[in-house]
Amino acid sequence: MKKNDLELFDGYISSCLSPEDTKAFEERLSTDASLKKRFEEYQVIVDGIELAGVNSLKAKLAIQERKYQKTPFKKSLIYKIAAGLIFLVAATFVVNQFVNQANYQELYQEYYTPYPNIIDPVSRASKSNDVSLFQLYEEQKYAEVIRALEEKDLSTEERFYLSQTYMAAGRFNEAFKEAEKITDSSRFYAPAQWYMALIHLNAKDTSSLKKQLDVIISRNGDYKKRAIDLKENL
Question: What is the pLDDT of residue 197?
Answer without folding.
Answer: 97
